[in-house]
Amino acid sequence: IIENPEEYLEEGNMLESDFVNYNLQNDEIIKANNHDGEQTFKNEIDNIVDIETIETKSIEENMEEGVIKSEEGVIKSEERVIKSETDFISDNVENIEIEESEFKKSETL
Known about the structure:
single chain; 109 residues; mainly alpha; 0% strand; rod-shaped
């Protein structure tokens, strides 16, 4: 690529027709480079969007997993409460049975 084709033309190192052709070719090279640059830029933006989408999905999935874990924790807590209540009821039933048997013993005496 000639940096200053005008100087070549002025010095007689280039014909007028070569100068015109050179500028046309140079314009095509510039257009091609610009197109490549635009395409690269678009690809980079697409990559950023893809990464943001992946990161957003990860955040949403993590939040969902967190909610699920919280709900599982609540269920386990509720199961423990139910078990405690069941144990309490069992203890009360046993106490009632003991009291009944003691009451029957005292009645027979």
